[in-house]
Amino acid sequence: DVLVVGSANADLVTVVERHPAPGETVLGSDLTVHPGGKGANQAVAAARLGARAGLLARVGDDAHGRLLAASLADAGVDTGPVLTGGAPTGVALIAVDGRGDNTIVVSPGANGRLTPADVVDARAVLASAAVVSLQLEIPSASVAAAVRTAVAAGTRVVLNPSPPAPLPPDVLAACDPLVVNEHEARALLRSPTGGAPATGSADAADPAEPADAAGRAEALRRRGPRSVVVTLGAAGALVCGPQGTEHVPAPAVEAVDATGAGDAFTGALAWRLALGEDLASAVRFAVRVGAASVTRPGAQTSYPAADALP
Ligand code: ADP
């Protein structure tokens, strides 16, 4: 089984002609509400492929929380570990303008109330999973508690450090793999502790940084994780482990909307690892799932079933 430990959000989207300046009001299109959050996305991606996948998350005792629970259950995710209450369900308030540029306000809400004690209470679920998959949209102490509980139980850890933030050395060392896109790879390399930089643009050139993606993957692996996967959008992914670095191309597809592609990739990867596949084989499967997800709009709505892969 795969257990995802992470966030669940309601994404509230409206289309505007232009973004409001501070103090200004603009009118937007009819609101659409989509289930989101990286944790829920990954769990849905895995379940839709046929995985036995559960989600340890916290939602509010409110309409958004019930919507999220229903969409998770509909995808086949085990919602038994989902906790309720303590704060409103996390939301992302998203305004999209005519050029496709977004402004987003995230209110973490209940995601921020998933505590280390909640994680420890769920240790039996963590211990019975083959793979636990994490992101950084819940408190860092809860991520660390989940990783330590998984390690103690012999559960494999997959971690996508998004949004990028510092990771304790033992958490980084447990990752097998650490999964990053190119932006996250650069942000982590810029920080001496493997986390995000305190200052500077995340993508500005750094003379000390390896110039190519393979060099960055290897530099990240020297920070301690057992293995590293760098996703490269249309170019697929790099797998970097003890045997060296391998490029896995993605199938060529007609890209419509890349939202949630990384979450689809990681959910699929975690599932294949839970089935006992080696890392390179699991990545060869995951790039197909990521590619399928960009051919349709939305995040969870775009995730494929196993018989619909390129
Ligand atoms: P993120 O969504 O985190 O930015 P990427 O853009 O690297 O991550 O995409 C994750 C995965 O989704 C890629 O490794 C690839 O498998 C797939 N993917 C993304 N964009 C495309 C594309 N244009 N064509 C084919 N596959 C894609």
Give short descriptive properties of this protein.
alpha/beta, UDP-N-acetylmuramoyl-L-alanine:D-glutamate ligase, 8-stranded mixed β-sheet, ATP-binding, magnesium, kinase, Ribokinase-like, carbohydrate metabolism
Please give a structural write-up.
- The chain is built from ten helices and 14 strands.
- It is α/β, with parallel strands linked by helices.
- The protein has a single domain, classed as UDP-N-acetylmuramoyl-L-alanine:D-glutamate ligase.
- The strands form three sheets. Strands 4-1-9-10-11-12-13-14 form an eight-stranded mixed β-sheet, sandwiched between helices. It has a four-stranded mixed β-sheet with strand order 3-2-7-8.
- β10, α6 and β11 form a beta-alpha-beta unit.
- α1 packs across α9, α7 crosses α8 and α9 runs antiparallel to α10.
- It is globular, with a radius of gyration of 18 Å.
- The protein starts with a strand and ends in a 17-residue tail after the last helix.
- About 3% of the residues have low confidence.
- The site of adenosine-5'-diphosphate (ADP) has 18 residues, from α9 and α10.
- Adenosine-5'-diphosphate (ADP) binds next to α9 and α10.
- This is Ribokinase.
- Keywords: ATP-binding, Carbohydrate metabolism, Cytoplasm, Kinase, Magnesium, Metal-binding, Nucleotide-binding, Potassium, Transferase.
